[in-house]
Each structure stands twice: as C-alpha cells, then as structure tokens.
User: Fold this.
Amino acid sequence: MNAMFRPLLSDLHDQQRHVESFKAGMRRFASGVALVTSAEDSVRAGLIATAVSSVSTSPPTLLVCVNKNSSAHGAIDRSGILCVNLLSAEDVDLVQVFSQTERRAERFASGDWRTLATGAPSLHSALVSFDCEVVERLSYGTHTIFLGAVKEVHSPEKYIDPLLYLDSAFRRVEKVDD
Ligand SMILES: Cc1cc2nc3c(=O)[nH]c(=O)nc-3n(C[C@H](O)[C@H](O)[C@H](O)COP(=O)(O)O)c2cc1C
Assistant:
C-alpha cells in the first residue's frame, strides 16, 4: 500500500470505530417509542421516532429529530404541523408499518385515527398525543430538528402499558421499587 494513503485509511477506520461505539452507547439508552404524524393537504404521513424530547414547559415545547430522507419529513416541514403519539405496548405491530418503507401504503389502514386541531392525525390508542405547531427548524447533518409548540394534549385516564425500545429490542416496563 502506498504510504501516503495509510493515514487517511486509518483516519477512516478510527471514524468508523467512533461511529460504532456511539451507536453501541445509544443502544443502552432506553426510550419510549413515538409515532409522529403530519398531514399536508389532507394527505397523512408518519414515521416511528425515538429521538423525541421535551424542550421546555413554558411554553410547552418538544423536539423531534427527523431524517431528511424520510417521507414524512417534507410533510412536516411544509405543513408546519406534527403530532407525537406515544405508543402503547399493544401497538408494537405499528412500528414495522411506520418504519419500513415497503409498508408505506399500509400506514393509516389500521388503527383508530382522529384529526386534531392542527389537522395532524392522532392515534386513539396512544398513551398520549401531543398536537404541535412547528415553531423552529434546525438542520443538522442528515436530520432536521423540529421544535413543536404543543397546542393540545390528549391522553386517556386509564393506565396504558408503554412500549419501550432498548438494545435494538421492544420491551415492556417492569417496576423496580414497591
Ligand atoms: C425504533 C426506531 C426508532 C426510530 N427513530 C427515528 C427517529 O428518531 N428519527 C427518524 O428520522 N427516523 C427514525 N426511525 C426510522 C424511521 O421510522 C424510518 O426510517 C422512516 O419512517 C422510513 O420512512 P419512509 O419509508 O416514509 O421514508 C426509527 C426507526 C425505528 C424502528
């Protein structure tokens, strides 16, 4: 091998190792699973996202990181509306439907969907649905971070078992104290 290329290849190798250790670290981050929806001219779009967080309570604001290549990205960006539906463990089957591109046509075929004040679809069986208006967009690498001002919160009174994602697997919550 030409000595001139060695440092470049080793840099690349180091970068790949760095990315892999980042991914391995993030697999240890347990999170809820959100089905994020939007609608543009009454055409509904959605994706599964775990990169969701609260930003502030005053005003109530959350963020969602959306890959620019996902079909829902354009709908959220152009319509300026999104709804974060936290999935229950019973709705685990929706994860494949809303994350696999080849199942896009099935996306709103099952489930009890309602239209919220912003026009975004909410899943009636969700733990909670946050109906949001997009107030900021930050482009960073492959993703856009959308800040959503929460307009309405819909959640049923009864306890619903949440769906969790940890170590590339879907799980239920187990209590560790009494
Ligand atoms: C557990 C899980 C978490 C995901 N989290 C995110 C996320 O936070 N942001 C994102 O853009 N895509 C995320 N994805 C990927 C998208 O759900 C998926 O790539 C996208 O919906 C493909 O959409 P399209 O077929 O409409 O382009 C996640 C997928 C899974 C299975």
Notes: Residues 33, 47-51, 65-67, 70-72, 95, 98-99, 101, 104, 165 surround flavin mononucleotide (CB under 6 Å).
